[in-house]
Each structure stands twice: as structure tokens, then as C-alpha cells.
Please model this.
Amino acid sequence: MSAVGRGPCDEAVVRSAGEAVACDAATRRWVLAATILGSSIAFIDGTVVNVALPVIQERLGASVRGAQWIVEAYALGLSSLLLVGGALGDRLGRRRVFVAGVAIFAIASAACGLAQDIRQLVAARALQGLGAALLVPGSLALIGSAFPAAERGRAIGTWSGSTAVATAIGPALGGWLVQAVSWRAVFWINLLPAAAVIVISISKVPEARQAGKQPLDLAGAALVTGGLGGVVFGLIEWAGRGLRDVRVAGALGLGAAMLVLFFVVERFRAYPMLPLDLFRSRAFAGANLVTFCLYAALTSTMFFLSFDLIQAQGFTPAAAGAALLPLIAIIFLLSRWSGAFLDRVGPRLPLTAGPAIAAIGFALLAIPSTGARYWSGFFPGICVLGLGMAITVAPLTTVVMSAVDPGRAGLASGINNAVSRVGGLLAVAVLGLLVTAVFDRSLDRRLEISGLATVARQLPPEERLKLGAARPPQGLPADQARAVSSAISGALAASFRVVALASAALAGSAAVLGALFFNLRGGPLFLQQRCKKVTVAHKSVAGVFRCIPLGVVVPEPRVARVLKNLAPVRLCRHIPDGSMAGVLKGLCRHFSCSPRDRSGFSGISRLSTPPVSGPSPWWPG
Model:
């Protein structure tokens, strides 16, 4: 689950859809309304729950492990079953699966609002994640199937703008509901729009399926769900039970073994949910590594930030929710500019500078101590973080789409979206372990400085695991109780400081990866990129290129290997030479291709252009 609700490459799934079903303009408007409303339910839920977590923890008497499970149970189902949900829609019908996802999500939301203890809430959140895994890819697929290619750009703009507004108001709305009504209301608000989506979808949205259906990879889905579940269980429960506990060690070992087996199965399966050959593309592999690190940092910081704001800094839930508005607003306002920036300079600069700026934003969030003001303490870091994310998100989508064949762009986008959610899933579990350790040490040190070392020994481990929701032992004098509460708030702020610095390190790693995997101006390592038009003067070579919005399609297999190794055609170029060999020779003079690929095709004379030194492209075969 993205910390800001939406994941990367959402719009790319729509762009990569195949032929649209025949439907009139009115039907398309109904499709857009249903998908915007359905997607907004999931995106709002991804932001409001974080704001409500500190209050939920306090009301249900849960530890930080319980709060982690509220988020992780949802993220586990969504991240591990997201690709299967998209494939299921292609087989059974996209409208049918979309409606089923909305219905499951609504039922689970009602169960969340009625939960009487933390276990009931976690179980309902797991069911909610299953519904989201059907809802999210289904909504995007319905837009792609209802709108022809020429109209998808406008539909994407409407969908993106509307869901961005919903995502932006989510934290503020959630904080207000928690403060004015109840934490249960943040789940109940999903019921009415879900009912509207179901009615509109059944009565107005046409059914659509994909031709040439492939078998579902149920074995892969079971292995990745079990593997991630085992690892996450072991990491979360480690803090309370210890690594020597059989359940913790067994879950970690079994989860790791299942993940290894998952990659083995995917390697040899005819129709895998995760085709590993996609990662032979250096650009695709690099983009996913950047995504993993950056979204791991973002998700974990947003998770613990709400605890710091409410329990350590004393913000109201409404104020804590509104504190995130600048982050979402900056990402939304600058996303179009960052896409144009990529076209001008190539992928390396935005995918290096963006994460680096985000790392500075995370580091700035580590500065405030208890009692900090929002405008001087948190606002600068949130704005810098938003700027870094805005520079990075749109280029990531373009790189992922451009790094693979156009026919597999939808699959590549889904994988990148799942990678972002898996990164957040694992980061919250790992950093939760770090937070509890830092909180314990910081609390003991602060109580010792205050002369309350004996009180520290009276705080049981179960109470310490509540972090900021921990309470002083009963029977203490009022002044000592206030000192203990102050020490608890200070220890929580110190714990968040460690999370922010760890997130800065993750974002810095993403910047390093961006510098390593991409050339400065999109040379051979950036395999394909946006192009405008290629003008070919001679009709015998007119079929070599067909320019599309996100790359170059090579229809002739005998020259595909040559053209794959060419850097992207960045501007409108006129090719006056009438012979095929002359065309390729002219392109090779301007760009670079290996000696093998100049002569490894039939029917075209051998090129004599000398090789250009440099790293070999990561193309299979």
C-alpha cells in the first residue's frame, strides 16, 4: 500500500490496454464514474487508516504490533494478489471481478467498523486487502476496455485528477471523522459509495474480457502470499517474543523458503504471474529497485509519522491528517511537469535527483523534537519530500512502460505497482522492530536522567510495546507521572527520528541505483523512450518504424535486434537514404550497437560502422 494511497504506474495499466469494446459516449461516462468512485474508496482507505491508527491503538488497548498488523494484513493481501486480481478479470470478466472486489471491500469495511478487539479488526483488514486486490486492477482495466486508444489520454486525465483529489482529502477527512465521530467512521464511510459503484457497474457498465486467456498462476500466488506472510509475521512478532521463539524462527525460515521456491517456480512455469525474463532489461530492473527502496521509505515514514504527531507532539487527529496535504498536493501539481522533464533530459537525472531530494526531506523530518511546531518543524520536510516524490513518480512510470515490449507494458506496470507495495509491507515490519528497540533504550535513559530508574523497572514489556500509548504505573505522585509521560513522548520522538533517518538512507540508496542503472541522457541503457515522429522518405523502409506514445515498435523480426540496441529517437528525424542498409547505417553512426547486432540479420548488407565502446545492453538472446 502506497503511503499516499496510489501506487506508481496506475495510469500505465490503462494506456497499455488492448482494443476497446463497442460502447457509446454515455456508457463511457458511466464507466468512468464507476471506476473513479471505486478507486477512490481504496485510495482514501489507504490514507485515512494511518491517521486513525494511534486512536485505534489506544481505544483497543493494542501494542505497536497490533497497529502494524492493521496495516500489514491489508497490504499483504493487496501486494501478493494484485497481479492475480488483474489476470482473474481477464478470464472471468473485468466488470464481474471489479464488482466482486467492491462488494468484498464493503463487507470487510463494515466488519472493521464493528470489530470489538484487535484480532477481529486485523482479520477484517485482511479481507479488505483481498477486495482491494480485485478492485484496483479491475477499475483500471475497465477504463482501458471502454475507451479507444485515441480517447484514453483524456479518460486517464479525468481519472487521475479525480482520484488525486480523493487521495488528498483522505487524511484530513479521516482525522476529522476520528476526532468528531469515531475511529469506526473511517471504515463506515466506504459503504455508501461502494453501494453506488455496484449499482452503476451492474446497470451501466458493459462486460469485457481479454482474448487469448492464460492460465492463472495459483501456485505462484499461494507461494508469494505464504512467503511474505511468514516473513512479516516473524519480523513483527520478533519484538515481543524474541528470535528464540519457535513460532518466530519457524515463520521466518518457512517464509524465506517459500519465497525462494516462488522464484524457482516462476522461472520454469509456462505462464508465470511474475515473468523473470522482464528483469533482463536493465532499465526495468533498475526502475523496480528504485521503486522498492523509495516506497519502502515513504510507507514506513507515513506509518510512524501519525504516531509521532498525535502521541508525541500532541496534534489532534484532524491536524495530523491535514499535515500531509502539502505532500499530496505537490506530487499532484508537479507530476505533469516531471514527465516533460524526463523527455528533455532522459531518466538518469530525475531518477537520481528525485530520490536524493526525497532523502533530504526524510532527514528534515528527523530534526523536530517533542513540542515542535508544524510550520517550523514538519512543514519544510514534508514539502521537500513531496518535491522529491513528484520528480520521481512520473519518470518511473515512463521508464517501466518503455523498458519492455508494448504488448507486455500492462504486466510490467502491474509488477512495478506490486513492488512498491511489497517494499512498504516489508519496511513497516523491519522498522517496527527497530522502533521498539530504540524506544526501550531511550525511555530507560530518560527515566534514569530524571531520577526515576526504579519506575522504569515497573513498566512491564507489554506496556512498553504500546510505545506512545503506554501509561505511567498506577500510584505514582502527580509530578512523577508527568515526568514519565514526558519521557514516553520523548522516547517515541526519538524512535521516529531513527525511522526518518533510515528512510533517508533508503531514498539515498534509490538515488545511487538511479545513477548506476541509467545513462545521463538516455543512451543505450535506457532502451526505449518517448518519441514524436520518424519520417522515412523511401516506401521500402516505411514499415521499419511505427511511432507510438511510449516507445518504438519494430514490426520486422529480422531487424528487431539491431533496433533494440539503438538509443531512442529523441527528435523528428528525416531518413533520406532509400536502402535498408543505409537507414540502419545512418542510425548506427548516430547511436551505438554491437558488432554482432550489425551483421546478425538476413537480407541486409553488412554494416561497416566501427563499434562504439560501452556497456552491453541487457537484452535476452
Observations:
- The two ends are 36 Å apart (CA to CA).
- Residues 279-523 form a domain with the Growth Hormone; Chain: A; fold (CATH 1.20.1250.20).
- The chain has 22 helices and four strands.
- Residues 520-583, 585-621 have pLDDT under 50 and may be disordered.
